[in-house]
């Protein structure tokens, strides 16, 4: 790895090699937004890397940043990371029953930003509290969301939930395939 950056509180770290130029456009306690230029493919795209606060009210500044990013619908934009909120009853198992009230702000932001969940392959949940089996809770807190321009440029983007190793979250592997006339080029991103 040739380049690295972290956000102001050191909770989000990015590493990249010389295949891409990365410009940090903005960062705060919950996100880093970068512009990437893939040198060989001459492709520009934007990614917001997220590590959201646990409390509902503390996530509001992140939701506002996402709404700001979404204003430019012409750029290929994806937001990926730990949002610390589930979007449906199917994304939680164990513990206190699912409360939709905690999801409404996030779901509203996804819709207002025109984002689509890129789905998943691999294990269903991305986080566990790692307690004993009778007290264990599983949730899908980590995900990747993309706008229509991203989906037009890279329609074959896939997200794989990798096995958990040493953390309460599983890493996400994002593989992006550019839509090209004659051949396919790949770019990979790993969220640990």
How would you describe this structure to a colleague?
It is a single chain. The chain has 192 residues and is an alpha+beta fold. It has a single domain, classed as Endonuclease/exonuclease/phosphatase (Deoxyribonuclease I, Chain A). It is built from 3 helices and 15 strands. The strands form 4 sheets. It has a 6-stranded mixed β-sheet with strand order 3-4-5-6-12-8. The mean pLDDT is 89.
Q: Kindly report the average pLDDT value.
A: 89
The major β-sheet equals: 6 strands, mixed
Radius of gyration over C-alpha positions, nearest whole angstrom:
17 Å
How many discrete structural domains?
A: 1
Q: Which descriptors would you attach to this protein?
A:
192 residues, alpha+beta, Deoxyribonuclease I, Chain A, four-stranded mixed β-sheet, 15 strands, globular
Summarize the structure.
The chain has helices at 56-70, 104-112, 148-153, and strands at residues 3-6, 13-16, 20-27, 31-38, 43-51, 77-82, 92-93, 116-117, 121-122, 127-128, 138-139, 142-146, 158-161, 172-177, 186-191. It is of the alpha+beta class and 192 residues long.
């Amino acid at each position: 790895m040739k380049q690295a950056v972290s956000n102001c509180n050191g909770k989000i770290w990015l590493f990249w090699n010389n295949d891409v130029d990365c410009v940090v456009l903005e960062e705060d306690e919950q996100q880093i937004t970068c512009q990437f230029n893939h040198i060989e493919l001459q492709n520009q795209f934007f990614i917001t890397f997220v590590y959201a606060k646990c409390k509902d009210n503390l996530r509001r500044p992140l939701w506002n940043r996402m709404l700001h990013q979404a204003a430019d619908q012409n750029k290929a934009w994806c937001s990926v990371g730990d949002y610390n909120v589930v979007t449906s009853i199917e994304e939680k198992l164990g513990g206190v029953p699912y409360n939709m009230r905690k999801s409404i702000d996030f779901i509203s932001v996804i819709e207002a930003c025109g984002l689509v969940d890129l789905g998943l392959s691999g294990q269903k949940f991305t986080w566990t509290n790692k307690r004993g089996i009778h007290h264990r809770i599983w949730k899908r807190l980590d995900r990747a969301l993309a706008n229509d321009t991203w989906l037009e440029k890279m329609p074959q983007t896939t997200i794989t939930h990798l096995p958990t190793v040493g953390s309460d979250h599983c890493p996400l592997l994002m593989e992006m395939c550019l839509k090209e006339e004659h051949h396919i080029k790949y770019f990979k991103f790993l969220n640990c």
